[in-house]
Amino acid sequence: MNFPVRRFAVVAAALASALGTVVPSASAATADPWTVTPAGAYTAHAVQPTWTVPSATFLCDSLDVTAGMLQATGATGGRIGTIDAIAVRYCSVGGIEYTVTQSATPWTINPVGQNPTHTNWVDVRISGVSVHWNGFGCAADFKGALYGHYENDTGNLVIGDRPGALLVSNVNCLGLINNGDAVTLRASLHMAMASTGEAPLIKAS
To answer: Is there a domain that residue 26 lies in?
Structure first.
């Protein structure tokens, strides 16, 4: 029953040998390193980020990364930085204010690959995201991952340009938010390195 599979493998190997080529493995294809210049501590600031659930969008005044680290190198899909502390100011919907706090740290910044449409952008995944949401008649936890990209030409870490995997749990919110709801954070965080005050460069080596 496995003869066709073995025959295909033999033919593929013969073709590769005849052409003098070597087919790279999937693991080799994802091991390309990324470099960050400069590395070290950074902060970031976003104006008017939004948190969207199926039934509402919550607008905030600002979102800051008050403590974070970027390391000098990292492999595709592996950690290249962290978000260690955030401050979110004045989030509201319908005139009701809500607080947003980081409930677990660190959040991890992972480079996914070169953005297919912009040569200066790097697609990223932010994993380990954990947030507690609290306000009048509403409390919930948001946990999971966020997706976005980093723009070397602007210094902005843009979150929410692609669907993430941030989900609601432990909710008590009068039906406004429900367990299992998907949450979208949209924010454009301008990054600044503590050593220079300038944005970093994140490039494939």
So the answer is: no
Tell me, yes or no, whether 112 lies in a domain: yes
Q: Which range of residues forms the domain containing residue 195?
A: 31-204
What is the C-alpha to C-alpha distance for residues 96 and 80, in angstroms, rounded to an integer? 37
Output the tens digit of pLDDT for each of the chain's 205 residues. 443 333 333 333 333 343 343 333 333 344 578 999 999 999 999 999 999 999 889 999 999 999 999 999 999 889 999 999 999 999 998 888 999 999 999 999 999 999 999 999 999 999 999 999 999 889 999 999 999 999 999 999 999 988 889 999 999 988 889 999 999 999 999 999 999 999 999 998 7
One-letter amino acid of 66:
T
198 in any annotated domain: yes
User: Cis link prior to 106 (omega < 30° from 0)?
Assistant: yes
Residue 186 lies in a domain: yes
Looking at the DSSP bridge assignments, the partners of residue 37 are: 201
- pTM comes to 0.83
